[in-house]
Fold:
Amino acid sequence: MTTTTDSPDHLPLQEPRLWRDDLWTARIIKNEEDDGWAVEMTRHGDPEPALVGPWTMGRDKKNPKPLDTPAFHTLVKTAAEVIRRHEQQLHATLNKSVTVTARNDQRIRVALSIVPDEDNPSATLTAYDDADDSELASVNVSPAFRLTTSSATAWIESDYARPRS
Structure:
């Protein structure tokens, strides 16, 4: 005998205005801006929809077109892409690097990694030898530290002393 621990909110469902699989829920809702309809795609466990967009009217020009398998799969693909792009942008915001030439024409990559935290955000500045990617130095810095070519060069020339913010 097999038992499932799925909550009723995560069981597969296919209704004209509500579709759900094991990862996503699509819900057709009344568009608050006008007389039309919208669809929202929410990944299970996320507090907000990943995607909200206009939805097509049905043939009666009054009610929404019902969800179907191809539409649901397209919505899942689009919502997953929105999340992926958001995660890529967040990663790029929190992880920056520059490569400079310093100390006898040595190429050094300096990376800034920020750890966002509401109570205690932190950041680490790390220097790597560009030839073999070996770590040369690492210091904690303020999350507000601005990594630029000149700030990286200044840090290297200070013998990797902790920079002031």
Remarks:
- The longest strand covers residues 106-115.
- The first helix runs from residue 69 to 94.
- The helical segments are 69-94, 149-157.
- DSSP finds two helices and nine strands in the chain.
